[in-house]
């Protein structure tokens, strides 16, 4: 099954986006994937030769982006993947694998041996020739193909491994998420900025630190902090101090990056907690009290939560929950319900 065709960024400008909703299955799906990949991304990162078993049992969903000489691919495969033998030839590239689920095993040849990147880990290294690999079923990986000319001198023939949640990897992943979301709408200047930031953040992974006064990296820092905050909204320790510590920057640097986007760190956390509280109040089967919801989303007490909620949404939590349930009841019965007086 396949949905949508590949989507090319407006005016090209060295950028290309492959739609993430495409599902590839079996030999026909593989041929469709190979055609798009070779014509649009293969000049930056050639598609490897896969084993017949892989092609025959292919169950794969993914997305890919090309930003000039950088390629980024998200691979979510229900089936195992394996290349056909150990390829020959020469290839000069730096590759990075960030594994979220499953395992990705790389064959570095007789001189370098096998390396398995497990879930929650990353590996970055220079590739001097086409490489063989295999994956476990149900593996989710983000792969970066990066220019050796820019990163090779920093690597000095090393391979770097570590946790996928390290500060530098978080920043790189956050930026690539923004690239996937915006690439189709970027003009030449936007593509240039996206590419420059990708290179700088990849260098930060190699060096284990990044230039926190570089203004181009501020959006990636903000997005990484938001991603981390969204995963910790119920954590009583969530704060600008905790986020800065996790991302290996000073609190001042983090606050400065958020200020550039017009919303302080604390305001973002508060807004997101209110949004989650609102969803909890509107949940059809939820029987949590206002006090329980206030506690779950780390408001100091019910009174504080009620004041904050009313200020943000224009009605009290109890009023919102009552009308939300009436709306749900009206939908189930097929009728229309219009809230005319939210304060009741």
Automatic annotation (TrEMBL):
Keyword Acetylation on entry: no
Family annotation (InterPro entries): AraC_XylS_family_regulators (IPR050204), Homeodomain-like_sf (IPR009057), HTH_AraC (IPR018060), Tscrpt_reg_AraC-type_HTH (IPR020449)
PROSITE patterns: HTH_ARAC_FAMILY_2
Keyword Transcription regulation: yes
Domain HTH araC/xylS-type: 223-323
Coiled coil spans: none
Keywords: DNA-binding, Transcription, Transcription regulation
Protein name (record): Helix-turn-helix domain-containing protein
Native source species: Streptomyces xiangluensis
